[in-house]
Design a protein that fits this description.
Helix content is 0%, strand content 47%. It is mainly β.
């Protein structure tokens, strides 16, 4: 399994947008993919997940603002973030899991993690 590599982080003003990308080697082999985030002093939380069959689930705090998607041809996972808020500031991690039948916003569903990309939203 090759490393997961995130890109697209940066700084944006509140109300703005960013799109994160994650290169996932052997994308087709995973049952579950997701984006997580962690702020200093806080637990890592699942922002959005994408089941291999297309099912998606989002944290309440990002519903209606963030969209997760994947492209098997590009071996890539994306997170489009709109109407961003200061509280979205965090390090964002891409993650994948191979436990077929188990895809949920819990850490046990994920086996592999990227190194993270910083997202900062300014007021």
């Amino acid at each position: 399994q090759g490393p997961l590599v995130e890109s697209g982080g940066g700084s944006v003003q509140a109300g703005g947008s960013l799109k994160l990308s994650c290169q996932i080697p052997e994308y087709y082999s995973f049952a579950c993919m997701g984006w997580w985030r962690q702020s200093p002093g806080k637990e890592r939380e699942a922002v959005a997940i994408l089941h291999g069959g297309g099912f998606t689930d989002y944290a309440d705090s990002v519903k209606g603002r963030f969209t997760i998607s994947g492209d098997v041809r590009e071996n890539a996972l994306y997170l489009e973030m709109n109407t961003m808020k200061v509280e979205d500031t965090a390090t964002y991690y891409c993650a994948t899991g191979r436990k077929y039948g188990f895809c949920a916003r819990v850490r046990a569903a994920f086996d592999y993690w990227g190194q993270g990309t910083q997202v900062t939203v300014t007021s």
